[in-house]
Amino acid sequence: MAATSVGRVLTLCRQFQNAFRISTSLAVQQSALTLTKSQSYLDRLTYPLLSSNWHCHVGQCRPLHTTISRRGLEEFFDIPENWGEATVKSGAPWTAKQLRTKSNEDLHKLWYVLLKEKNMLLTIEQESKRQRIQMPSPERLKKKLRQPLSLQIERSMKRLDTVVKEREDALRLLQTGQERARPGAWRKDIFGRVYWYRFREHALPWYMNKRYKRKRFYTPLFVTPHIRLRLEKHLRAKTRIQNKEREKQTVLQEKFPQIKAQSS
Amino acid sequence: MISCFPYRYPLYQIGNPQLRIFRPPFSLTLVRPGKEQPQDTVQFRIPMEMTKCDVRNYLEKIYNVPVGAVRTRIQYCTNKKRNHLNQKVKRPDYKVAYVQLAQQQTFEFPDIFTEKDVKSAEGSVEEMQEKFMEDEKQRQKPDLRRGGVTEWFGL
């Protein structure tokens, strides 16, 4: 109960970020009470007393504490009040900009909140399909398309992932100077094309790996004419596009001489 | 460390540290069992890449559910159906996990879609509409004195 209500609060509603800008426990209580958007959720939110691991290291601390839910399997379903309702309120998904302001611990906790929410939505969706009833939470009208809630959550999770990856990349660059997490190399395949081959983990060295040896990273000699033909085709296509563009420009200049020639 | 799965778990050799998955990318779906299951068994649909150990750790760590035994199977879904272009359409396969709870706990799949009796506010348009609908229904019902015989038979 607490987790899903917190999930609704934290995962989706941007307005609830006010709850994060806190520095003392008292402020937590006050900010919790002053948020009026969804009072029903907050009434059930029980902010516990300061736990031992929630002490500020620095002067300005922005810790996020979620109540430990003891509901177990009930978290796969909505809170019992929302059962049988036609529409359920929910907020907007997280953007990358908002997520970048959060600390690593917050992001970690947020991931699990999002995950639980996603599980709940999937469960409800499957049950509604089984019972042949319309799913309760409405398809939210987005600017372009109607998108279900589970997609919004997936997008939030993906953005979270990108933010975490950015941080990891930066850390790795600073510490070791390596650009990529997974090692690789530029290699030629049988067709003469050069591509980035990403290494895999093996238990054997490569010269003892029969399957790896069957994959040839060199171009046999009889492929060279095919490469030349492919190159000719590619160049022909490129010149065709360029010529078309040039013709278009000349036609435009003839029709509308006042137009400035586009610098390409 | 590894959350965006490159479709393979990292290689384990003796002496390696314990594999830890931060920010697991797996999502479970609790489903109502099609066949009758024992009281302590919960049925999940899980992604194909998950294992029994994964399911156990997932439920224990994230949901605080004491897990006894986990059994999995892969459900193959049909590739026989064809669309309007006569192309074969594959319904995606899925893995099913039967989780037995420890500590003699039981779980019954709840009924989520019970319709609540909504009483609209007095004097509102909805209430008048509902009354009108009810009156119409009363008028549609046949005369009880005829004893179930339809109006088709004369008299």
UniProtKB/TrEMBL annotation, chain B:
Region Disordered, annotated ranges: 132-155
GO CC annotation: mitochondrial large ribosomal subunit
- Composition bias type Basic and acidic residues, residue spans: 132-148
Primary location recorded for the protein, binned into one broad class = mitochondrion
Q: Tell me a GO biological process for this protein.
A: mitochondrial translation
InterPro entries in the record, alphabetically?
Nucleotide-bd_a/b_plait_sf, Ribosomal_uL23-like, Ribosomal_uL23/eL15/eS24_sf
Tell me the first and last residues of the signal peptide.
none
Molecular function GO terms recorded: structural constituent of ribosome
Please give the coiled-coil regions recorded for this protein: none
State a single Pfam family of this protein.
Ribosomal_L23
Where found in the cell?
A: Mitochondrion
Alphabetically list the UniProt keywords.
Mitochondrion, Ribonucleoprotein, Ribosomal protein
Task: Family membership, please give it.
Answer: Belongs to the universal ribosomal protein uL23 family.
Q: What is this protein called?
A: Large ribosomal subunit protein uL23m
